[in-house]
Design goal:
Low-confidence stretches: 212-216
Order of helices and strands: EHEHEHEEHEHEHHEHEHH
Mean pLDDT: 91
Distance between the termini: 53 Å
Strand content: 15-25%
Shape: globular
Helix content: 40-55%
Largest sheet: 9 strands, mixed
Number of helices: 10
Structural class: alpha/beta
Number of strands: 9
Radius of gyration: 19 Å
């Protein structure tokens, strides 16, 4: 069984479609663990309705503590042999579970991933973002995969969505509560535990890039959580004796810090101009 872990927060406009895309899977042996993270709109009621209509959907209502806490709660409730993370405002193709799980079993892998495509709120592809997808059909060991976390467009490999993991990989692992960029903080630990990983270039996941202002969301101190995760990753690689990976991760982190600083300047100037 696949356990679908889904934090939910104020997504009433999208949630029904998201859950419908899961219910329409050609592979039906799944459970959906919805963690309503203190939503102030009707998202909680939508979760209740789905749980009442289909026993495969379960909902837990909590106070608002963020994605990491919601994921940790969901991880404590997993009953399946496999885990699939999904955002509550995205969509997956009907064959996602079946084809990913087939690839995992065929290769006796611990994790399998497809890829995603960016769309706007209306479902239109954002070609500027989609054209740089690096994912190919490959079978990798853990070190080969970890190396991809230090290469351009590493976000495709870092995100926990559009992946099926063996549940056993998460034993003793929790996400850092109160921090954003939670995938950056834990993906290297999870991948290290894998012997074999399958990557597929096929796009299964529709990632909705919500429109915002000219610079997106405002920069805040929380944006530095990503840099903190990189520092932890460098130390992790050193502790495991992966010195080449540690060096590559350090270079990647430096490049990221430069981009983060540029984003801060852009946001600061935009806010100043708007008064």
């Amino acid at each position: 069984m696949i356990s679908v872990l889904m934090p939910v927060y104020n997504v009433e406009k999208y949630l029904d479609n998201t859950l419908e895309s899961v219910r329409n899977q050609t592979y039906s042996d799944f459970e959906v663990i919805m963690i309503n993270d203190g939503s102030t709109d009707s998202s909680g009621k939508i979760c209740d309705r789905w749980a009442a209509e289909d026993s495969r959907f379960r909902v837990i209502h909590t106070e608002n503590r963020g994605v990491s806490a919601a994921r940790n709660t969901a991880l404590s409730l997993v009953r399946g042999e496999y885990i699939f993370f999904m955002d509550s405002d995205d969509l997956i193709e009907p064959e996602t579970f079946e084809e990913l799980l087939t690839a995992l079993h065929k290769n006796n892998a611990d994790m399998v991933m497809g890829t995603f495509y960016y769309t706007d709120n209306e479902g239109n592809p954002i070609e500027k973002l989609n054209e740089n997808c690096p994912v190919r059909d490959e079978v990798l060991d853990n070190v080969q995969y970890l190396r991809k976390l230090t290469e351009p467009n590493a976000n495709y490999y870092c995100t926990s969505t559009i992946k099926i993991f063996r549940s056993s990989l998460f034993e003793g692992i929790t996400y850092p509560v109160g921090r954003i960029n939670e995938d950056e903080a834990r993906i290297h630990e999870i991948i290290f535990r894998c012997n074999k990983i399958v990557t597929l270039k096929k796009r299964y996941y529709n990632y909705i890039k919500h429109s915002a202002g000219i610079t997106g969301t405002s920069f805040g101190i929380k944006n530095l959580d990503r840099e903190e995760a990189f520092v932890e990753r460098i130390k992790f690689f050193k502790d495991k004796g992966f010195y080449d990976l540690a060096e590559r991760a350090a270079i990647f982190a430096l490049d990221s810090a430069i981009v983060t600083f540029a984003k801060w300047v852009e946001c600061a100037l935009a806010e100043k101009a708007s008064g």
